[in-house]
Each structure stands twice: as C-alpha cells, then as structure tokens.
Design brief:
The chain is an alpha+beta fold. The protein has three helices and six strands; from the N terminus they run βαββαβαββ. The chain has one domain: RutC-like (60s Ribosomal Protein L30, Chain: A). Strands 1-2-3-6-4-5 form a six-stranded mixed beta sheet, covered by helices on one side. 29% of the residues are buried.
C-alpha cells in the first residue's frame, strides 16, 4: 500500500519535517493547519478570517489528494480563546453542516502569538 505526501509549500513543512497531508489507502490525514495565506505568508487578524484560510488550505490539500470535504469524518479544532467558538461555529456550519463529521474543539496555546486557530481533519473515501 503506497503512502502519498501532500505539501502546500509552507516553509514550516520542511523546517518541522511534516507534510500538509498524508494519504494511505482510502484515508487522508491533514495536519494541523493555521490561518496563514501561504501565497503571501501573511496571517489575518481575526479568528474568522483565519478559520476561512484554514479551511481553504485544507480543501486544497484534500483535492490534491483526490478527496473532497464531504469525505471528512473527523475534525479537531484548536483555538486560543474559548470565546472564539461562537465566532467560528457558523463558518464550520457553512462547510460541514451537511457532512457533520465527528469533531472536538480544544482551547490551548498555539506556537505563534498571531495564530488564533488551528484545524486538523481526517478524511475517508471508502
């Protein structure tokens, strides 16, 4: 069974030694994705904009891997403030409202102060 690595070209991938996504058989594991715009390496100021960037990057990685957002079965959301939940839930509902993957939100610190949210997903197409 082959293992396929997906990259977004983020400098963090090479430095930290990880892939944006790993495909193994009918599974796609997407790494924790923050709100950077990887084309410009800029980070929006609001959690809403960061969440949208996360989802855009995740969607692109899934597509490159041959998956769709509708294949997502598990989400982990990491936010730096519990009050962000009510601000990002509607965004998640727009994307995952009909898909309804299993999901968890955790309040924690992230590795850079400008990072307000990180999202990781697992997809299955079987």
């Amino acid at each position: 069974m082959t293992r396929r690595l997906i990259s977004t070209g983020s400098p963090f991938e090479k430095t930290a030694g990880y892939s944006r996504a790993v495909v193994k058989s009918d599974w796609c594991f997407v790494s924790g994705t923050t709100g950077y715009d990887y084309a410009t390496m800029t980070m929006p100021e609001t959690v809403e904009e960061q969440a949208r960037n996360c989802l855009k990057t995740i969607d692109a990685a899934l597509k490159e891997a041959g998956f769709l957002l509708s294949d997502v079965v598990r989400n982990h959301y990491y936010v730096t403030d519990a009050s962000f939940a009510d601000r990002v839930f509607p965004i998640f509902g727009e994307v995952f409202g009909e898909i309804r993957p299993a999901a968890t939100m955790i309040v924690c610190d992230l590795i850079r102060p400008e990072m307000l949210i990180e999202i990781e997903v697992t997809a299955f197409r079987g």
